Structures are given as structure tokens and as C-alpha cells.
Amino acid sequence: MALKGNLRDFTITQLLNLVNLAKKTGTLVVEGANQSARITFREGKLAYAEISNEDNGLGAVLHKNKIITRAQYNTISKRAKTISDKELGLMLINAGYVDQRDVIISLQNHFMDILQRLFSWVEGIFYFNPGETPPPDRIPIKMDLENIIIEGSRRLREWEQLQDELPNLDLALKFTDRPGVNIQNLNMSVEEWKVVSYINPKNTIRQIGKAAKMSEMEIRRVVYSLLQAGLVELVRPEGMVRTLPGLDQTMAGKSKEEQENLVNRLIGRIRQL
Amino acid sequence: MQTVKMVVTGPFNSGKTEFIQTVSEIDVVSTERKISAEAEKVKESTTVAMDFGRITVDDQLVLYLFGTPGQKRFDFMWEILSEGMLGFIVMIDSTRPETFREARSILETFRAYAPTPYVVAANKQDMDDAWDVEDMRIALRLENDVPLLSAVARDKESVKTVLIELLTNILNEISG
User: Of the candidates B86, B100, B101, which has its C-beta nearest A247's C-beta?
Assistant: First the structure.
């Protein structure tokens, strides 16, 4: 089945949320106005990222992170044409220029940088190639997406967009039941922690905003990031008054058996169609 | 004669009229008008008030299916049409992710004021560019206990499956 569309309608943050929650493995290709990016995931975690028209090789990444000098980078660039990143990494570690931690952190920073740039793309075609792994000569990593999603959601600042994403502030929030996600490990801001402390199916988003002394825009932004990171879900607040009658009122005057009989007759008739 | 009703809602061009037409025993009473807005010109006409279909169960019971207009500017009609319904179906076009946000908003609106059972139908699942149903669940932020069904509105068996799923949920709610 296709997973494709336009960033205009489905943002990078939402795509990362989808990959994260569905624990997808494969490569997300995003074609923007001037550049394209390929982001690879393994079981819902970030494994690799590259962007077109730029050197995504390990030498360039280490140089960008100031782990190696320009002269070292130039030397590596000449040799790197014939060896893979994996071989280069091993060579540099064995020669004592870098350690494994330098390599991993530099790659994490580079991939994060690509994703952060993607957050600013508002137009572009995307599609997901299931099962596609990183290029074999590159070094894959394993990075949780929750913090990246929260960071991306913070950038969604336009009022209209936030209002579209979260039109009803009279709904409440509850924590999702997601094994393996520890909220303590997330890089949340003071505002986000404040909102988290008020989350309870009895409190509407509007009430939480008021208690946390936040404007509508601020509370929308925080709730949107928590939703996108898959940490909370929207629920009807306990005791909420509905404007329309429920089943009990619609079927008023009928015993339970009569109500069941009526629905069974409907089911029987539809089966015959 | 007793009449009961169920409502079919969802964004513009999600397949509500076709869904009702597929199982209705009468020609659907449709209040379609030629589309004027450029952005909405993916089809020739659209529903501006409601669609109305009928399934006669026996000489004492009739089921009416009401389709709401898809565009947001007609949302004042939704609550009127939903009064007294047994349950509702939210239709979503699986090939148009640009409508998912609106679908979510419609769903949240209905859930907020209508305490009746509902199901979500991921329509056009026979198309090559249809999104996977489980991907749609995440995109639409549907909890795992919300019934989300693969559907093809012009296929009678598929429509029957959606209706029976909704009726089964209604039965479960009655039985407690």
C-alpha cells in the first residue's frame, strides 16, 4: 500500500510520528523544491539520513563536527572515493584519530541536522519505500524519534495550522499506553512538563492551559507536540455534556430485549442485501 | 411503522453518496449541486444538504441512511441530521492524505456531541495509491479500540460489512 503525499498536507513531524508508532522499516524519500532527502528507519528508529547536493560521507560529517581538521578531511576525501564509510571509520579509530563515540555522535548530529532542515520544508513530495535499508557502505545508527518529533512540533508556530491540527480545546488528554517509552528520558521544556503534570481525563485542554497560565496558542503548541510524539491521546472529558441524545434516549420506551431485537432485525436484513 | 436512522459523514469527495447508493433500495434522494469552488473541482457535483437512502427491514421497520454534506461550510447541517441516529459512519478517502486533517476534525466534532457508536471506513482501498489502513489509524489519531475498516463504497459486500460492524457495536452497547 502506498504511503505517499505532499508535505503541504502531511508534515515531516506527522510522518515521523507515523514511522515511530507503526515501527516502520524502510526509507522515506522527500523531494523538495531544490533538494531531496532520504531518511532510513529500522523498526521505527532513525537509522540513516542523507541530503542531495551535499557530501554525506563520514569524512565530511566528522569535519563538520570539528572532530577532524580541514587538512585531514581533504586527505580523507581523496581516499574515501575508494573505501566505504565503515572501512574509513575503522581505519580512523584504529589509527587513534577518533573513537567510536565521536563517530556515532557526529552521525547523530548530522542526521538531526538534516531532519531539522526538513522541518522547514512546507512543500515537497514524499513517499516511503518499505524495507529499503541504508546504502551498504554507510554507517547506520539507532536513534529514538520521540525527541526529534517534539523538537519538530515546537517549530509549528502558525496559528491557523495549530488550530486545524487541534480544533477543539474542550477535549481532555490521557497518556497512551506505550511500552518502552519513558517520559523521563524526553527532552521536554518547562512548559511541556507543566502541561504533563495536569494531564487527566477530567481536565480539558482549555482548563490545563488556564491552570498553566498559557495562551491558547501556547497550549495548542504543547499539546500538539505531545500528541505527535505519541505520548498522549485525545479523549472526551469525564462528565462532558453532549448535545445529542444517546442510544438510551433514541431507543427510549423499549426494553433491552426489544432494542436488541430491533438491531438484530437490521443486521439480518443487511446480510440479505 | 418504525423508522431508525444512521448517518454517513466525512470530508468532501470521500464517497458518502456512493456508499448510500450502493445499498439503498430507492434511488438516493441526493441534493447535489454543480461545484463552483476551483479547489473542490475533483468531481462534477457535490452534496449541499443531504443524501437520503432507505432499506426496508420488514413491514414494521425501515432504516434510513443520511449522508451529510462534506464541505465545512455546511457543518451547521451535521447536528440537525444526526438527531436521533443509532450511530454514524465516518468515510475517509484513503488516497487523499490532504483530507485526513479534516476527517479528524469531523470525527472529533461528531464524537463531542454524539454519544452513539460509530465506525470509520477507509474508502477506496481498491486504488493503487490508497494508504494502508493501519497507517491511516495513526495519521487520524484513532485509538486501537475505534473500529477502522477497509472499504470500497461501490462494492455492496464491503458496504454491508461496514454497516454490520456498526450495528454489532450498537448491539454490544445495548447489551452492556
Answer: B86
